[in-house]
Design goal:
Number of strands of chain A: 17
Number of helices of chain A: 8
CATH class of the largest domain in chain A: Alpha Beta
Strand order of the largest sheet of chain A: 6-7-8-3-9-10
Helix content of chain A: 25-40%
Structural class of chain A: alpha+beta
Radius of gyration of chain A: 24 Å
Chains: A alpha+beta, B mainly alpha, C mainly alpha
CATH superfamily of the largest domain in chain A: P-loop containing nucleotide triphosphate hydrolases
CATH superfamily of chain C: MetI-like
Largest sheet of chain A: 6 strands, mixed
CATH topology of chain C: MetI-like fold
CATH architecture of chain C: Orthogonal Bundle
Order of helices and strands of chain A: EEEHEEEHHHEHEHEEHHEEEEEEE
Number of helices of chain C: 14
Largest sheet of chain C: none
Strand content of chain C: under 5%
Distance between the termini of chain A: 31 Å
Distance between the termini of chain C: 43 Å
CATH class of chain C: Mainly Alpha
Number of strands of chain C: 0
Largest interface: B-C, 104 and 103 residues
Shape of chain A: elongated
Number of domains of chain C: 1
Structural class of chain C: mainly alpha
Shape of chain C: globular
Oligomer: heterotrimer
Helix content of chain C: over 70%
């Protein structure tokens, strides 16, 4: 179990994290989700021991590891650009964490070799052990980085934007594969992402961060359906913000025969399985996006329609960030 | 088509203009670079191979060659160690005053070689700050080998560091962090991760450092005292022979130095092609 | 907060990588020993000699003539190099021609060739009886033993600074901006003058400044070709050496000090102009 307690960090005058508290159970798959500058990577690096907090503590299984250096925390860290050692073969990269151990803790050579082979099989790169990182594709490198991190049998796996450097198709395949691997190996994992879709699809729980604070911790369902703050509501999924303070998801708006809110339609197009209607509120000109079931008939461009909210949220001043 | 014009791709010159510019540039280089180089070898061999070999095999020339090799063998490793230490501190950590440190490392580049020698004379010479104390203890630095080494180390001080710092800056510290996160200690990280990443850049810096260390004239000239067979390096020996009107001898020794320069250029070019190291104007 | 907060109050940003104390400490110590302490001798010595003594030598008629010669020839050579260095860089970056790689490598020859070797080679070429000199002499053009000869030597020494400063900028300058200029109706000359030249001007400036600074302090390649006539072809670094040979350390120091201050002032001004420009361009 990982417990992060009141972590604060500034870089010079720039406050990166304010009083972060977070608890993670063994076996969980956690996403740290937020825009750039939200502090998510800093938090990940502090948990790893790559960065030091100004205040606060990190506990692994009840033990305060704040003063334990990264090499002794037994965490596997997968870097955003993988940080593979270019002059070493794939197998040597994977074995590195074992070969640098002190002689008395180091497994015999044959065992290290076997372990590297086994991990190559786990990450489905059998037979590529003698290649160099430069000879691999992006997706393959990512898996080498993962195997290298797993070689030290980490109690915690940390991934910094694990899919950030990959193209869309590879990204999708790797996501599914990573989730399976996490389950199979019984890992505890934390990954950082700015992609809400990725977070919602992969994680058991999502930690939404903004400006160095945690806005919400919850299951993907909770974060999407019951956003705790205006920020979460806008960052996770799309939301219309009406002048009266209501926040409404596009698919929570319906077109009705009579209503107070009238929208002038600017544009209609297909988006995934539904119609997307874009328009402006009559009185204020506020832009409104509406999703309509694809079986229904959308309004015509130039038409003025009345709308009603099936479901809306209003955030208190404290939640209004 | 009434007018017959050559089509010129936008963003480039006509073939004629290109040929003209290329010719002009090559003529300039031939005149200012090639010709002096050819002159060195041809003057050295002016009276045939015999006098050339005699001049090179002369005991004074021989001891100058030996001294030059010793000087380089001592000062290059010193600056290599400094270059590695300084670039590790500068590129892997953030601390205030870093830019000042970079400026100070570059300082020897902007000091005249003669002044570089002068400062050591002021410090260790007979009338220098530490001169009386040194002579009372029988230590000789100026007009002796230690002075030549000091001046050479000063002159070549920035070479390795200036090559490594931009390279290591560009490589960042993710690789080292990865190694440390996998449990490697400082030396393991340096040996297994950092050094392999920078080895060609290091070699490049060492190569340039060595060329300058063997060829330095002004600074060494001030501190050496030109004692034949003792404190004469190859460039100084060239000067002495030249001033004695032994032109074949002077050019013979000079041709060895020119050959060294050519070898340096070849190795440097090979390194640039193979490892995509950029050469910069920072010498 | 017990242990954590106390450990973090260091003056540098904390890092997981080890070795800062060792490498930083060593770098600073070595820098002080080799560069800072010896260089500070110039200031200590100057301060110790009194203003009048300083002015008497530092601004004597002979010294002033030497400064004029050193700075004047360095300036002239830097101008020649700015023009031809730009041409060479342009040709190397833009055009394809046989032997280009060899030529490109050769540009660094002045970095690699010991200055004394360059000095005697140039003298052999430009002396009245030399390869080139024999054709110039009947025309009444004297190169060796005149300021022209000094300038020729400084052109040789300074060329790579300009070429290597301009080359990368020219290579980075995308073809697209030139094509954009062409689509907007600019002719080739206009494109060069209004698009390309302003973009490479800062780099050209840097190369110019580096070549100039190097030229002012240059010794080895100049003393052979200059003839060293006091008041006529005696450069400032040579004057320092002359003072030293007469054991006039004060005189040597005063001249060195003046030279260094003027060089620094020039470089500082150029840098300031550059950084103002850069800030305005937001680069």
């Amino acid at each position: 179990m990982i417990r992060v307690e009141n972590i604060t960090k500034r870089f010079g005058n720039y406050p990166a994290l304010h009083g972060i508290d977070l608890e993670i159970q063994a076996g969980e798959f956690i996403a740290l989700l937020g825009p750039s500058g939200s502090g998510k990577t800093t938090l990940l690096r502090i948990i790893a021991g790559l960065e030091f907090q100004d205040e606060g503590h990190v506990h692994f299984n009840g033990e305060d590891v704040s003063d334990i250096p990264v090499g002794k925390r037994n965490v596997g860290f997968v870097f955003q650009q993988y940080a593979l050692f270019r002059h070493m073969t794939v197998a040597d990269n994977i074995a590195f964490g074992l070969t640098v151990r002190k002689a008395r803790n180091r497994p015999p050579k044959a065992e290290i070799k076997a372990r590297a082979q086994e991990l190559l099989r786990v990450v489905q790169l059998e037979g590529l052990g003698d290649r160099y990182p430069g000879q691999l594709s992006g997706g393959q490198r990512q898996r080498v980085a993962l195997a290298r991190a797993l070689a030290i049998e980490p109690s915690l796996l940390l991934l910094d934007e694990p899919f950030g450097a990959l193209d869309a198709k590879v990204r999708k395949d790797l996501r599914r594969w990573l989730r399976d691997l996490h389950k199979q190996m019984g890992l505890t994992s934390i990954f950082v992402t700015h992609d809400q879709e990725e977070a919602l699809e992969l994680a058991d729980r999502v930690v939404v961060m903004d400006h160095g604070r945690i806005d919400q911790i919850g299951t993907p369902e909770q974060v999407y359906m019951e956003p705790a703050t205006a920020f979460v509501s806008h960052f996770v999924g799309e939301t219309n913000r009406l002048p009266d303070g209501r926040h409404i998801r596009p698919h929570d708006i319906e077109i009705v025969a009579e209503g107070r809110d009238r929208v002038m339609v600017d544009n209609v197009f297909r988006k995934g399985g539904s119609w997307r209607v874009e328009g402006r509120l009559h009185e204020t000109g506020t832009i409104v996006e509406i999703d309509i079931d694809s079986h229904d008939t959308p309004p015509a461009v130039g038409e003025t329609v009345a709308i009603a909210a099936k479901r809306a949220r209003i955030f208190s001043a404290a939640e209004q960030r | 088509m009434t007018r017959k014009t050559r089509k010129v791709t936008p963003g480039t010159e006509s073939r004629t203009a290109q040929v003209l510019l290329i010719t002009l540039a090559l003529a300039f280089l031939a005149f200012f670079l090639m010709l002096p180089l050819i002159a060195v070898f041809s003057e050295a061999l002016k009276q045939g191979i015999g006098p050339f070999l005699d001049a090179v095999a002369n005991p004074d020339a021989f001891s100058a060659i030996r001294l030059t090799l010793i000087i380089a063998a001592i000062s290059v490793p010193l600056n290599m160690v400094f270059g590695l230490a300084a670039s590790w501190a500068i590129t892997k950590f953030s601390f205030p005053g870093k830019n000042l440190l970079l400026t100070l490392i570059d300082l020897p580049f902007s000091v005249s070689p003669v002044v570089s020698g002068l400062i050591f004379v002021l410090l260790f010479g007979a009338q220098g700050l530490l001169g009386p104390w040194l002579s009372a203890h029988g230590v000789k630095i100026i007009f002796a080998v230690p002075g030549i080494i000091l001046a050479t180390v000063f002159i070549t001080f920035p070479f390795v560091a200036r090559e490594l710092i931009p390279l290591m800056m560009e490589q960042g510290k993710e690789d080292e962090e990865a190694a440390v996160s996998l449990g490697a200690n400082g030396w393991q990280t340096f040996w297994h991760v950092t050094l392999p990443n920078i080895r060609w850049g290091l070699l490049y810096g060492v190569l340039l450092c060595n060329a300058r260390a063997m060829g330095e004239f002004g600074a060494v000239s001030v501190v050496s005292g030109h004692i034949r067979g003792e404190t004469n390096t190859m460039p100084l020996h060239v000067e002495i022979l030249y001033n004695e009107y032994d032109f074949v001898g002077a050019f013979a020794v000079a041709s060895l130095l020119a050959a060294l320069a050519l070898v340096t250029l070849v190795l440097k070019t090979v390194l640039e092609w193979r490892f995509d190291l950029h050469s910069g104007a920072r010498h | 907060m017990p242990s954590m907060t106390t450990r973090k109050t260091t003056w540098r940003a904390p890092s997981v990588l080890p070795g800062f104390g060792l490498t930083f400490g060593f770098s600073l110590a070595w820098l002080s020993l080799i560069v800072l302490i010896p260089l500070s001798m110039l200031f200590i010595k100057s301060a110790g000699m009194g203003w009048q003594a300083f002015v008497d030598v530092g601004f004597s008629e002979r010294a002033l003539t030497a400064y004029r010669l050193s700075f004047g020839t360095a300036l002239a050579a830097a101008f020649v190099n700015a023009v031809f260095g730009l041409l060479v860089a342009w040709v190397l970056v833009r055009y394809a021609f046989p032997g280009k790689r060899v030529i490109s490598a050769l540009v660094d020859l002045p970095f690699a060739l010991p200055t004394a070797v360059a000095g005697i080679a140039l003298t052999a070429l430009y002396a009245p009886s030399g390869w080139v000199g024999q054709y110039l002499d009947p025309l009444g053009i004297k190169v060796a033993f005149t300021p022209i000869g000094i300038t020729v030597a400084l052109v040789f020494i300074g060329l790579p600074f300009v070429v290597r400063s301009v080359e990368p900028v020219l290579a980075d300058l995308g073809k697209d901006v030139e094509e954009a200029a062409a689509t907007l109706g600019a002719g080739r000359a206009q494109t060069f003058a209004r698009v390309i030249f302003p973009a490479i001007l800062p780099a050209l400036f840097t190369g110019f400044a580096l070549a100039f600074a190097r030229g002012v302090g240059e010794y080895g390649s100049v003393i052979f070709i200059s003839g060293n006539m006091p008041g006529k072809t005696e450069i400032a670094p040579l004057l320092i050496v002359t003072q030293l040979e007469q054991y006039n350390y004060d005189g040597a120091t005063a001249i060195a000090m003046v030279m260094m201050l003027v060089s620094f002032a020039v470089l500082f001004t150029l840098n300031a102009v550059q950084s103002i420009r850069r800030r305005r361009l937001g680069a």
